[in-house]
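This section describes the prediction task in plain terms. A model, or a person checking by hand, is given the sequence of a single protein chain and must write out its three-dimensional structure as a string of tokens. No templates, partner chains or ligands are provided. The sample shown here is typical of the held-out split.
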Amino acid sequence: MQEISFNEKSYQTAFGSADINKTPCGYCKFWQHKGYLTSPMLKKHKCIQKNCKYFTGNPNSEAFVMQKNKINTKKAHKKNRKRYLCGEITREEYENLTLQIGRLNI
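The expected answer:
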């Protein structure tokens, strides 16, 4: 089995694309299109949103970290809104949580 490394000089991308020279956002282990993923590929295929079991993210990639944070922020907002609408938290608590999420950019 191939070891995934994000420390190479050149990478073979998934989907039959050419080699890339910059650090990839992640790696896809799906047998039909194994390879490294660039930021546009990651956005197009929504690997993080789908929570794809074949995807391995590169924690050193700024694009990967930003997309992961964006998804986590949306999930936190959705969870807090649901808690507010169900009456578990007050409007004031909901607004405070929303401000904290925005400041922290979870």
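For orientation: The chain has a mean pLDDT of 82.
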